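Repro:
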Amino acid sequence: MTDQNDKSASQTRASRDDRLKSALRENLKRRKLQARERAASTDPSQNDDGSLNEGAAGKTGN
């Protein structure tokens, strides 16, 4: 009788592990996508008009 319980327990464990792996994989994909979107929307190297942001060093006087 313990053989059947062991098989059932190992199948349950394997099923749970598969579900967790899948959930972790989907979470990682979602977080990577969010990070890419954030990086693209807050790119400090460009102004709203698409020109490069040179800061004070790029300004010319007189």
